[in-house]
Amino acid sequence: MYFIGIFCSLAAWYLFICSKCKVQPQNSRGQCDNKTVCKSDVHTSACRRHPTNMDAVVDASAENAVHGEDGAAKLQDRLQRRHQARIEDTERRKEAKQSQSVAEEKIGYFSSTFNSERASIAELLSTCSGADRAAATQKLEDATVKTAQLQKFVNDSVCFLTQYELRQAQDALQKLQASLAETREEALPKKKFAFRSRTKAAEKVSKQATDSPPDVGRSPDSGITKTDGAPASQQCGFSYMNNAFLTKTAEEILNQDVLLTHLTNCKVRLFGSPSTLHLKHIDSCEILCGPVSTSVFVDNCRNSILAVACQQLRTHNTTDTQVYLHVTSRAIIEDCKGVSFAPLSWSYPTMQEDFSVSGLDPGRNNWNQVDDFNWLAAGTPSPNWTVIPEEDRKTTWDP
Amino acid sequence: MGLLTILKKMKQKEREMRLLMLGLDNAGKTTILKKFNGEDVSTISPTLGFNIKTLEHRGFKLNIWDVGGQKSLRSYWRNYFESTDGLVWVVDSADRLRLGDCRQELSALLLEERLAGATLLVFANKQDLPGALSKEAIREALALDDIKSHHWCIIGCSAVTGDNLLAGVDWLTDDIAARIFTAD
Ligand SMILES: Nc1nc2c(ncn2[C@@H]2O[C@H](COP(=O)(O)OP(=O)(O)OP(=O)(O)O)[C@@H](O)[C@H]2O)c(=O)[nH]1
Ligand SMILES: [Mg+2]
């Protein structure tokens, strides 16, 4: 691993200095930047400028020379220079070509190593089913160690991969981790094996830290400008209520972080645009809220109906709950069961204004793109959430 | 010269730093990263996995790793510890209900051997919210004053307005630079 790192650094260091101008192109190791183009492109385009300048210089001196007194000598000189320039140009091209091929070589090495490692882990996993418990344990442990090593290999290679290759590798690793978890679940159900093996694996791949030890006990409280929050202001919201009808107006919740906790059998109407909304310990409630400019965070909610517009919806430990949703990025669930989704159908007279206050795009609704963080298996849909069938959707709402 | 020494030399040449950004889900890690890089923050989804960004800042090359903070992803955090120069711990200052979780997760990280050399920057994020706790309150809630093992600093910020993000990153890079780029 370290060898690759060094190779990469060395290569980057000497290859990407233009031999002519001795100027290092601005972004000397390219690749890493999510947006930058291939390294060698930077190099060649930096160098391409040079031949142009060079030709111009040669041509200018040639013009001056043509009718000079000792024209022959000058002509000789001119030809000599041209020749020199041509040689240098060829050199430069050769160099550029070489750097290109070295870059390709590194990437080639990365891909082939990555792919063969990945294949061998997949192979290992595929032999787990059917193996006896001891054998499966061993295989899983090996696979865990190998996956962690592969992760490290990717981490170490970041500097010379293009964004595309990096993304590919990330995706592949994520899939690998998902199928590792899945296989573990299948082969060794129940037992608290996963955590132990992960710890062990992590220890095995752990290398000595390369950094020097810190000065112990220094805890600076820098004199940097502080942005303190308002002094313990009253939290906006409702808590510990039963069987109540609760509302808030636009003025009350504008740009606020609203918190609703420990509500049972309540109907809540929030007519306006808060900055964030937190729901915790909600039982058998109907909660409707105008456009939330950032995220809605739901935890421990059961047997309820929610209707909300937001940038992100984050749902946790929630069961048997319907969500009528407008979400501009994505909704996620974690540790949930029986959550169902439909597009937001509730509205109130000033909702459009509140949409513009919130900055949410009313035309962009990803209500059915739900990520289940407990269900990373690609292909099979999560059993923890569903789409509410059209005929069962609520279309009329109490005021 | 051993391999590690060569590697360290190369690192010095590049003035490269690896920063790891962690924190509970919904803290605002990805938003901080994108805002800092001048990107649109309105389309960010909860992170399923991780993001890497490399950017130039004051002559340093920052390799920033932003890893998802959902509960189910936290056990993978350890995969990213290796070679971390700076740890950025992001806190949702308005999320009083999970400050306990937040403190626990952070103190577990500080015991990690592979993070032993890292400088710690705590971002008390979402200071734009009226209900946000001050950075002093967060400092107390997370018992930062008890930390003797790492250089640390807490800064109140807002990823939405961009307030103080620069101040935080500047402090962090200065502290790391003083530690790893000093001439031998
Ligand atoms: N009001 C306010 N909202 C913020 C701020 N920073 C982030 N947010 C919002 O908080 C929500 C979560 O932000 P993310 O950046 O996705 O959080 P994260 O820490 O990356 O979360 P994970 O990826 O799940 O670990 C988003 O809706 C953001 O718009 C802030 O400073 N102020
Ligand atoms: Mg994120």
UniProtKB/TrEMBL annotation, chain A:
Primary residence: cytoplasm
A GO biological-process term: tubulin complex assembly
Name this protein carries in UniProt: Tubulin-specific chaperone C
Cellular location(s): Cytoplasm
Organism of this sequence: Nothobranchius furzeri
InterPro entries tied to this protein: C-CAP_CF_C-like, CAP/MinC_C, CARP_motif, TBCC, TBCC_N, TBCC_N_sf, Tubulin-bd_cofactor_C_dom
Known role: Tubulin-folding protein; involved in the final step of the tubulin folding pathway.
Keyword terms of this UniProt record: Acetylation, Chaperone, Cytoplasm, Phosphoprotein, Signal
SMART domains cross-referenced by the UniProt entry: CARP
Annotated stretches, region: Disordered: 203-230
GO molecular function terms noted in the UniProt entry: tubulin binding
Signal sequence, renumbered to the chain: 1-23
Pfam families (UniProt xref): TBCC, TBCC_N
Source species taxonomy: Eukaryota, Metazoa, Chordata, Craniata, Vertebrata
Gene that this sequence comes from: TBCC
Family listed: Belongs to the TBCC family.
Any single GO CC term annotated in Swiss-Prot or TrEMBL for this entry: cytosol
Self-association and partners: Supercomplex made of cofactors A to E. Cofactors A and D function by capturing and stabilizing tubulin in a quasi-native conformation. Cofactor E binds to the cofactor D-tubulin complex; interaction with cofactor C then causes the release of tubulin polypeptides that are committed to the native state.
Residue span(s) of domain C-CAP/cofactor C-like: 231-375
UniProt keyword Phosphoprotein, yes or no: yes
UniProtKB/TrEMBL annotation, chain B:
Residue positions binding GTP: 23-30, 69, 125-128
Location relative to the cell: Cytoplasm, Cytoskeleton, Microtubule organizing center, Centrosome
GO molecular function, one term: GTPase activity
Binding site for Mg(2+): 30, 47
PROSITE patterns documented for this protein: ARF
Origin superkingdom: Eukaryota
InterPro entries: Arl2, ARL2/3, P-loop_NTPase, Small_GTP-bd, Small_GTPase_ARF/SAR
Protein keywords: GTP-binding, Lipoprotein, Magnesium, Metal-binding, Myristate, Nucleotide-binding
Cellular component annotations (GO), alphabetically ordered: centrosome
Similarity comment: Belongs to the small GTPase superfamily. Arf family.
Name the UniProt record assigns to this protein: ADP-ribosylation factor-like protein 2
Species in which this protein is naturally found: Nothobranchius furzeri (Turquoise killifish)
Lineage, top ranks: Eukaryota, Metazoa, Chordata, Craniata, Vertebrata
Gene transcribed to yield this protein: ARL2
